[in-house]
Design goal:
alpha/beta; 7-stranded mixed sheet; 4-stranded antiparallel sheet; 11 helices; 15 strands
């Protein structure tokens, strides 16, 4: 089966002359080719300067990462981190015997997170680094499934039809988990009355085959926290009524690195007894470049032993668990660097500043006659708004997104999930680096473009419109 992109085939058929990548004479060297094939490895080598310039020029066509308000992923680190990144680029995280010092740093990091998230005994917790939160979610889901299977088999019951309960606004990695690992996904729909998984009607979705409930600290669509304590209280009542003891996995891809610093008194973590595991993205509000996530289980009992592999480590024994194999060790070292460099107070300052900017922006957006806020960015520094009903028939949020993109800003518009797909929202993610000054420039550009759109005397075309961000 071929997975060759269709556009490659189109080039072959219709644009034979465009198959090569031209080399600008300014960058070419005597004796070198003036073009190289686009879709196959060249027959001859290029000088490094020429190859570099070709790749550099291709990448230059990407958007400005600092102006990308669609992504949660970190786009900036300081010069010392950049130097450390280059020094550690050759380290393979899976090879713990070859790189034992990096393996030790990994253990320190997830133990620090266990402490940050109020594990009863951080040194008795267990965790691992991952490739982002998606792998961490897979591991969290697998642990829930395996614990449920063991309990069912011990009770002499069938373990054939596991299900996992979550909000319809869940990130796509959970859909992938259920698909890849044969778990029925049960989605609790969100609505205007229940804008996230808040425990409402939860008893209609859980049963003896439920391996767990996923609660999101920072819904991708809007940034709101799902209330862990409220969901846990409902599950407590369900257990009292039915005997079903259903654990919670907290998807803290973003919020697990915001709440401890911005809302330290909010109980969402291992302070809630029903929480078995928590994941986060080191490369989101953990502030590291793309490529690292984390998962921590409350204690070793929460992670079935048959999911853990043992490797030789400094003459001893070290547990390891992961889905991915070879992967960068550099980002783990960068995470440790930031834990040391910023400390608790430094993280608090960075995250509070992001929160302040988000709430400043949302308050100003709320003043526009054209918009209704969906939320205000007071959970994670993310907020969304929709076009006020009846404001105009001449334009929509996709048009505004396109107009802002012309000025370099990526501010996505997209429909809400199932049962609210008729609602289109626009969202801003505030990350480290979006200053108050840049935010003020953004507001000026939004004001200019809204005034332009409001001045239209006829409707803008809508053909070909599609979401500019995928969850």
């Amino acid at each position: 089966m071929s997975f060759r992109p269709a556009e490659h085939e189109a080039y072959d058929r219709d644009h034979a002359a465009a198959r090569d990548v031209s080399v600008n004479p300014i960058f070419s060297r005597t004796g070198e080719a003036t073009s190289v094939p686009r879709f196959k490895i060249p027959s001859d080598p290029l000088l490094p300067e020429t190859a570099y310039q070709i790749v550099h020029d291709d990448a230059m066509l990407d958007g400005n990462a600092r102006l990308n308000l669609a992504t949660f992923v970190g786009t900036w680190m300081d010069d010392h981190a950049n130097r450390l990144y280059l020094e550690a680029a050759d380290k393979n995280m899976v090879d713990k015997d070859e790189y034992p010092a990096t393996a030790a740093v990994e253990t320190r990091c997830w133990t620090m997170l266990a402490d940050l998230w109020n594990a009863p005994e951080p040194l008795n917790a267990i965790g691992t680094s991952t490739i982002g939160s998606s792998e961490a979610c897979m591991l969290g889901g697998l642990a829930l499934k395996r614990r449920w299977q063991h309990a069912r088999k011990a009770a002499g019951k069938s373990s054939d039809r596991p299900n996992l309960v979550m909000s319809s606004a869940v990130q796509v990695c959970w859909e992938k988990f259920c698909n890849y690992f044969d778990v029925e996904a049960r989605y609790v729909p969100i609505s205007d009355d229940h804008r996230c998984l808040d425990g409402h009607d939860l008893d209609k979705y859980v049963d003896e085959n439920t391996i767990g409930v996923v609660v999101i600290m920072g819904v991708t669509y809007t940034g709101v926290y799902e209330p862990v304590t409220e969901v846990a209280a409902v599950l407590d009542q369900i257990q009292a009524d039915t005997g079903l003891d259903i654990p919670i996995h907290v998807d803290g891809a973003s919020g697990a690195m915001i709440a401890p610093f911005v809302q330290p008194d909010l109980a969402w973590d291992f302070r809630v007894d029903r929480v078995a595991s928590i994941n986060t993205s080191g490369h989101k509000y953990g502030l590291v470049y793309p490529g690292v996530g984390w998962i921590v289980w409350r204690d070793t009992a929460a992670l079935p032993e048959d999911l853990v592999f043992r490797v030789s480590y400094l003459g001893g024994d070290m547990p390891t668990l992961a889905i991915n194999f070879s992967r960068p060790g550099a980002q783990v070292l960068l995470q440790y660097y930031l834990f040391l460099r910023l400390g608790w107070e430094g993280y608090r300052a960075v995250q509070q500043t992001c929160s302040d900017v988000a709430q400043y922006l949302s308050a100003e957006i709320a003043k526009f006659d054209a918009f209704d806020l969906w939320n205000d960015g007071s959970d994670i520094p993310v907020f969304a708004w929709r076009l006020k009903e009846g404001h105009t028939e001449n334009w929509n949020l996709y048009h505004l997104s396109d107009r802002l993109r012309m000025k370099g800003w990526l501010v996505p518009a997209y429909p809400m999930p199932a049962d609210l797909v008729d609602v289109t929202v626009q969202r801003i993610v505030v990350r480290n680096g979006l200053s108050h000054s840049l935010a003020a420039h953004l507001l000026e550009d939004i004001k200019t473009e809204v005034e332009y759109l409001d001045g239209l005397e006829s409707p803008m075309p809508t053909s070909g419109q599609h979401p500019t961000f995928h969850h």
